[in-house]
Amino acid sequence: MQLRCAVLDDFQNIAMTVADWSPVEDQVEIITFTEHFPTEDALAAALAEFDIVVTLRERVAFPASLFGSLPRLKLLIASGMRNSVIDFAAAADNGVTVCGTASTSTPPVELTWALLLGLARGVVPESNALREGGPWQSTVGADLHGRRLGLLGLGKIGSRVAQVGLAFGMDVVAWSQNLTKERADEVGVGLAADKEELLRSSDFVSVHLALSDRTRGLLGAHELGLIKPDGYLVNTSRAAIVDQDALLAALREGRIAGAGLDVYDIEPLPAGHPMRSAPRLLATPHLGYVSLNNYRTYYGQAVEDIQAFLSGSPVRRLGC
């Protein structure tokens, strides 16, 4: 019997065209799903007859209950080599091998700057006004040169965002719970005394932290209240790092100049979600890792993972 492989969340219907699936097509039937399954029950029903699943980043959770509902599942492939929404112990208990792929941090770095620049120069409202016959110039851009960029996190992505900020002539500072002066010096940025000092002094704040028990809810109502009234917040990391209700309140009440978001508490956002209509918000639908080169890597290496699994020698295993 031919094996069946499900490719989840192929929103752009591109998975089959950015990679060569022919090496496995004689043994595996590939089915792509362009719509997101909104509940675990719907997902379990859709995947009941599949042996292999390819999931995109951390958009679909695989808890123990889901593994228990998929007796045919033998191989789960996640794009990237880190995934916080897969229960690896449950996968092992259910005889499911989990493999990953390479991934590059370049796309989220670039998207961070797309959001930051879009906010600073009012790109969306000015473009809309021009196209719709509105006023000719209605905003005054916020300069970057000489202003402070505060980075929460100075890892692989944060350090590259810092380099762009420095190139713009910005005063770049960073903070995280484990950040040292040596690391900040290595990147060429200042080390903020603490989180509060960074928030108070920065004109632009950008989040580049991994989600953990220590970072969940790191920016709540109190912390958001420290940001300048003409300051901006950008989050391309994880939604749960910023209290969503507190951010909505700050935007609605005009307590910050604006926010740029690529991540949300629910994804995809339901039609009536308040983030869809929040003022002062430049929002994108989790595009951080959505780029042609990344997709070529994700799906190309997914094919390699399937080949290796079928040969009995899985590669890039996760959770072992």
Describe the structure.
The protein is α/β, with parallel strands linked by helices. It folds into 2 domains: 3-103 and 291-310, Rossmann fold; 106-283, NAD(P)-binding Rossmann-like Domain (Rossmann fold, 3-Layer(aba) Sandwich), CATH 3.40.50.720. Helix content is 33%, strand content 15%. The chain has 12 helices and 12 strands. The strands form 2 sheets. It has a 7-stranded parallel beta sheet with strand order 8-7-6-9-10-11-12, with helices on both faces. A 5-stranded parallel beta sheet has the order 2-1-3-4-5. It is globular. The protein starts with a strand and ends in a 10-residue tail after the last helix. 39% of the residues are buried. The mean pLDDT is 97.
Secondary structure layout plus pairing:
Elements: E1 3-7, H1 22-25, E2 28-32, H2 40-47, E3 52-55, H3 64-68, E4 75-78, H4 88-93, E5 97-99, H5 106-120, H6 123-131, E6 148-152, H7 156-167, E7 171-175, H8 181-187, E8 190-191, H9 195-201, E9 204-207, H10 221-224, E10 232-235, H11 244-252, E11 258-261, E12 281-283, H12 292-310
Parallel strand pairs: 1-2, 1-3, 3-4, 4-5, 6-7, 6-9, 7-8, 9-10, 10-11, 11-12
Task: List low-pLDDT spans.
Answer: none
> Considering DSSP H and I runs of 4 or more, what fraction of the residues is helical?
25-40%
Beta fraction:
15-25%
Structurally, the number of domains stands at: 2
Order of helices and strands: EHEHEHEHEHHEHEHEHEHEHEEH
Query: Largest sheet, order of strands side by side?
Result: 8-7-6-9-10-11-12
Structural class: alpha/beta
Rounded mean pLDDT score: 97
Q: What is CATH's topology name of the largest domain?
A: Rossmann fold
Give the beta-strand count.
12
CATH superfamily of the largest domain, by name, is NAD(P)-binding Rossmann-like Domain
